[in-house]
Write a structure and sequence with these properties.
This protein is α+β, with helices and mostly antiparallel strands and 656 residues long. The protein has 5 domains: 184 residues, MoaB/Mog-like domain (Molybdenum Cofactor Biosythetic Enzyme, Chain A, 3-Layer(aba) Sandwich), CATH 3.40.980; 58 residues, Molybdopterin biosynthesis moea protein, domain 2, CATH 3.90.105; 91 residues, Molybdopterin biosynthesis moea protein, domain 3 (Molybdopterin biosynthesis moeA protein, domain 3, Beta Complex), CATH 2.170.190.11; 72 residues, Beta Barrel (Beta-clip); 215 residues, D-Maltodextrin-Binding Protein, domain 2, CATH 3.40.190. It has a 6-stranded mixed β-sheet with strand order 7-4-6-5-9-8, with no helix packed on it. The protein has a 6-stranded mixed β-sheet with strand order 16-13-17-21-20-18, sandwiched between helices. The protein is elongated, with a radius of gyration of 34 Å. The termini are far apart. The relative contact order is 0.10. Bound molecules: adenosine monophosphate (AMP) and magnesium ion. Magnesium ion (MG) binds next to loops. Adenosine monophosphate binds next to helix 4.
Length: 656
């Protein structure tokens, strides 16, 4: 044999003498070792400019720092009026209103009040001036040039065409929750709140390397025997999809020195390193050998009883996780999703991926190897007999199987196959978002924002809809939600909430909110007076303007008590929230109103206490033990929650 053939003989011998996987472990054991060695923990937060927040994960709950809109505004082009001035207006009996010497274009702060018998021109988005409580459309008026007045041919409802301050987002209201992936929609909300820098979770940097002499990058010519690198791009894209930052480091040859160098460079600058290929124990498979030499603890697992995916190698080098995925694309994707995706998502602050599973019948037998958990790609088909799962048998070398299949099912290690007609549970790939665990409808309270935040710490997500107390109760009775949040006063009994519950519903005690008269500090009509005395003084003062609340709200009942039938200026200004009342007073559009103390505090207003209202939660008794509802009630009763509520200024401890 000629000398120059000796190295080849050696190589031949090495290839024929392939090492065996000595210690193949179960999928569960592999996951346990990996989780024990690598903390699956969220990374610290960082602030980014709003323009860079797209796709990032919120690190904290975000409360709106302002009311949106920040003031009561006109919803149409027309005139700001007093609704009472328009009563009885019709085509045959127009009402004449004199125009004030001011035009409220957008961005103009009003300087004149709308006095009785007058109107101020206002544009869509203009600030409603003091005294006005409705807007009439320009189309329903006739301008009288000679006298600078308008004739109105239709009466205006109080509140007509007014968008109230805080109607969209109220100051202090939690509008976005941590763990949320920011999309264009959230960018808009954050911008409307005026937030220029956003607290987001630092993205885990994931280095992605492909190994193999046969690999070429897309765009290059393909010599005989070569294939394009598909694992690198698909892994990098999956990293990004799951909240990580992909650092694509390209293709490395099956050469120990080159790979060692590339790996060390990757470890120096990234949080996770993902390699693919070279993990089998054949000739030319060098990845795992290099990892073996990188120091303790080194390789945690090499060989998992998975099909596809057996050659998976999990290691820790220089304190960082290194994962070597099998080279075959389907194997690479399965193992990546099984082991790497949960780690990336945990570090990125995202909830675990929720793959929806559906039951489907198998129309053909699927054979499987005993002793390995086998994953079978399947496409789903709807038949008259129900859903069937058609196995996609393209083998683990296929790049298309993962995208053509609708999902996969697993055959447990202990079984040698699944029979015709058996039902399997198909996990749908990328099926989407998990529905909320709990739906809560009713009246908003900053205290509830806090409770929901604490519930989220237990991994439970709540959807909230603020439609007011009565709306929440109606939704609960229609079975549309788990909980109604309410504060309704029964004038007959003087009790809150309880008297409104139908049979079969129960009340969970929430907390007390102190209601009182709010005013601008320093106003002599109110300063150093008791609430009733102050309102009496205001009613006697012809210039004082009030802001009311909507009929049906608990607060309105208190206002009616104070007014004793009087209808002072501002009576018809009837916004739907505490925030809108506080905003009107703080901005000088009104002088007093009734709101809760926490809101008065947020606006820096003076506060004269009136009474305590109860804010409680109603639920259907027969759903008391559903897990999410039970967890909510548990969080509500928790000492930590109650302390947090007390800190916010609410009264806890009493029962309704
Ligand atoms: P290996 O794990 O290196 O033994 O590779 C197993 C099989 O996967 C071989 O057919 C490789 O050509 C193929 N393979 C390895 N890496 C990639 C890659 N990045 N893209 C596509 N196929 C690959
Ligand atoms: Mg290879």
């Amino acid at each position: 044999m000629p000398e120059n053939e000796i190295p080849f003989r050696e190589r031949l011998a090495a290839a024929a003498r392939q090492e065996q996987f000595l210690s193949v472990v179960s999928r569960e054991e592999a996951a346990t070792r990996f989780r024990a060695a690598v903390p699956h923990r969220v990374l610290p937060p960082e602030d980014v400019p709003l323009a860079e927040a797209l796709g990032r994960v919120l690190a904290t709950d975000v409360a709106s720092p302002i009311d949106v809109p920040p003031f009561d505004r006109a919803l149409v082009d027309g005139f700001a009026v007093r609704a009472t001035d328009t009563q009885g207006a019709g085509a045959a009996s127009p009402r004449r209103l004199v125009l004030n010497r001011e035009i409220l274009a957008c961005g103009v702060a009003p300087s004149l009040a709308v006095a009785e018998g007058s109107a101020t021109p206002i544009a869509t988005g203009g600030v409603i001036p003091r005294g006005a409580d409705a807007v009439v459309m320009v189309e329903q008026t006739e301008f009288l040039d000679a006298v600078l007045a308008i004739d109105l041919v239709q009466a205006a409802r109080p509140g007509q065409f007014i968008g109230y301050a805080g109607g969209d987002m109220a100051a202090g209201e939690t509008v976005l929750r941590r763990g949320l992936r920011i999309t264009a929609r959230e960018i808009g909300m954050l911008a409307a709140c005026g937030l220029a820098r956003i607290p987001v979770v630092r993205r885990p940097r994931v280095a992605v390397l492909s190994t193999g002499d046969e690999l070429r990058a897309a765009g290059l010519p393909l010599p005989p025997g070569a294939i394009y690198d598909s694992n690198g791009p698909i892994v990098a894209a999956s990293v990004i999809e799951n909240g990580g930052e992909a650092v694509s480091l390209g293709i490395v040859r099956d050469d120990a020195a080159a790979l060692r160098e590339a790996l060390q460079a990757a470890l120096a600058e990234n949080d996770i390193v993902v390699l693919s290929g070279g993990t089998s124990k054949g000739a030319g498979d060098v990845s795992h050998r290099i990892l073996r030499d990188l120091g303790s603890p080194g390789i945690l697992v090499h060989g998992v009883a998975l099909k596809p995916g057996k050659p998976l190698c999990l290691a820790v080098a220089e304190g960082k996780p290194v994962v070597v995925l099998p080279g075959f694309p389907t194997s690479a994707m399965f193992t990546f999703h099984d082991f790497v995706v949960p780690l990336i998502r945990a570090m990125a602050g995202l909830p675990p991926r929720e793959d929806e599973a559906v039951a489907a019948v198998l129309p053909q037998r699927v054979a499987s190897e005993l002793g390995r958990t086998e994953f079978v790609m399947a496409s789903l088909a709807e038949t008259p007999e129900g859903l069937v799962a058609l196995p996609v048998s393209k083998g683990s070398g296929s790049v298309t199987a993962f995208s053509q299949a609708d999902g996969f099912f697993s055959v447990p290690a202990a079984r040698s196959g699944v029979e015709v007609g058996e039902t399997v549970s198909v996990t749908r790939l990328g099926a989407g978002v998990r529905p909320p665990d709990l739906t809560l409808i009713g009246s908003h309270c900053v205290g509830l924002d806090r409770v929901i935040g604490l519930l989220a710490e237990r991994g439970l997500r709540a959807r909230t809809l603020w439609v007011g107390s009565a709306g929440g109760l109606a939704a609960l009775q229609r079975g549309e939600c788990d909980l109604a949040a309410l504060h309704l006063l029964d004038p007959e009994t003087g009790l809150y909430n309880g008297p409104f519950l139908a049979e079969g519903f129960r009340l969970a005690p929430g907390w007390g909110r102190l209601q009182g008269v709010v005013f601008r500090r320093g106003d002599p009509l109110f300063e150093a007076r008791a609430a009733e005395a102050a309102v009496t003084a205001a009613l006697a003062s012809p210039d004082a303007v009030m802001v009311n609340r909507n009929v049906g709200s608990g607060t309105r009942a208190l206002v009616d008590d104070l007014l004793k039938g009087a209808r002072p200026a501002g009576f018809w200004n009837q916004p739907r929230s505490h925030n809108a009342v506080a905003a009107a007073v703080a901005q000088g559009r009104a002088d007093w109103g009734v709101a809760i103390s926490t809101v008065a505090r947020a606006y820096g207003l003076g506060f004269l206490p009136l009474t305590e209202e109860r804010y409680d939660f109603a639920y259907a008794a027969d759903r008391r033990d559903t897990p999410a509802l039970a967890a909510f009630l548990d969080v509500l009763a928790d000492d930590r929650t109650r302390a947090a509520l007390r800190d916010l200024g609410f009264r806890v401890g009493d029962t309704p």
